Amino acid sequence: MTSDRDDPVYLDHAADTPMVPAALAAMAQAAARPGNAASLHGSGRRARRVLEESRESIGRDLGARPSEVVFTGGGTESVNLAIKGVFWARRAENPAATTVIASAVEHHAVLDAAEWLGEHEGATVVLLPVDGVGRVDPADLRSALEEAAGTVALVSVMWANNEVGTMQPIAELAAECARAGVPMHSDATQAAGHVPVDFDGSGLAALTIAAHKFGGPQGVGALLIGRNVACVPLAHGGGHERDLRSGTPNVAGAAGMAAALEVAVGRLDEEAARHAALRDRLIEGVRGIEGSVINGGAGHDVPALPAIAHVSFTDCEGDSLLMLLDARGIECATGSACSAGVARASHVLEAMRAAPDAARGSLRFSFGPESTDADVDRVLAALGQVVERARAAGLASTGAR
Ligand SMILES: Cc1ncc(COP(=O)(O)O)c(C=O)c1O
């Protein structure tokens, strides 16, 4: 077997993307000069200008007013600020408002923040079911809102799923929330820069983004939040960022995120079409492998992220598939989680009621700016044999069948 370790095929862009040159340049320029954006002297004013121009640029690219952009330390922090902050503010207004509604396929940043509110703040957490491709039915949200009428603090449903790529009917879900007078947050960490996102037109109260998913730096994100949405900060201090996120702002990080988003949004149509073609060719090739299952919206005519393909193979473990591909210089992600040494399907596939014998053997391939047809060829050339070997390894270790 030949190993191509020096030249890996990187197909894990949903975990992290390479920074685009414009973002690196913007960061280097901002970081090379001193200045706290809160200082009144010339250097401070220069830093403040870079920060505010970044805020304006991000607002322009996501249909938000600059004052609605709150810089944070990434997706997890933005989500926690939205879920906990809006919960606390709503409960302060109305002590009965203690229900948090979220979809069952949210990222753990959302699920664990909601669960924490359940354990420590007396919240009742309601998880909305999804269909076989991972979509929430707006009628289910309407029923949940009606059942918990008068007690709902907020709703959180992601724009697009990070494992299977399925997109949610955000406008319809936001309309249900508006009818019920309940603020809705959407985790758009995987969507921003990949599909059109228009915050002001969405009807949402708050929306999360993270720079490293669209060519910006890690550890930098934003919460877009309406001016009139009450939210209690997680951290207290100097009152930066509308008093929602105290701490010296990361000016270089904000500049890098704004530059990356501008590039991503500027070439969105072209890249979305290119990625969808790569994704669909990979999916077609995988269909030819015995015991394969295509998960999520892609391949099922349901709106999905163009850059994510999620596939399962019966009778093998995702970790084995991942390691065998890695040994052939192909880097992707597995959708299964290992709990106490026992591989099980991810909560997303469980919520989609995926057949357990296939769901454990799942892989996510996610494309980025440098992905090519040759990458898909490499995967398809390796995958059939990798699946066979993973199945054989599974049979040998269990002694079964
Ligand atoms: C949907 C979603 N939400 C939240 C996060 C967390 O973002 P971060 O790693 O920037 O904290 C991720 C990261 O993978 C994600 O995919």
Give a written overview of the molecule:
- There is one protein chain.
- Helix 4 (108-120) links the parallel strand 3 and strand 4 (124-128).
- The strands form four sheets. The chain has a seven-stranded mixed sheet with strand order 2-8-7-6-5-3-4, sandwiched between helices.
- Helix 2 (42-62) packs parallel to helix 9 (251-266), helix 5 runs parallel beside helix 6 (170-180) and helix 11 (318-327) packs across helix 14 (373-398).
- It contains 14 helices and 15 strands.
- The radius of gyration is 22 Å and the shape is globular.
- It has 401 residues and is an alpha/beta fold.
- Bound molecules: pyridoxal-5'-phosphate (PLP).
- Pyridoxal-5'-phosphate is lined by residues 74-76, 79, 107, 109, 158, 162, 187, 189-190, 210, 221.
Short description:
The chain is of the alpha/beta class. The protein has helices at 21-31, 42-62, 75-93, 108-120, 138-147, 170-180, 199-202, 240-243, 251-266, 268-287, 318-327, 347-351, 356-359, 373-398; strands at 9-10, 69-72, 99-103, 124-128, 152-156, 184-187, 206-210, 221-225, 292-295, 308-313, 330-331, 333-334, 337-339, 342-344, 362-366. The radius of gyration is 22 Å and the shape is globular.
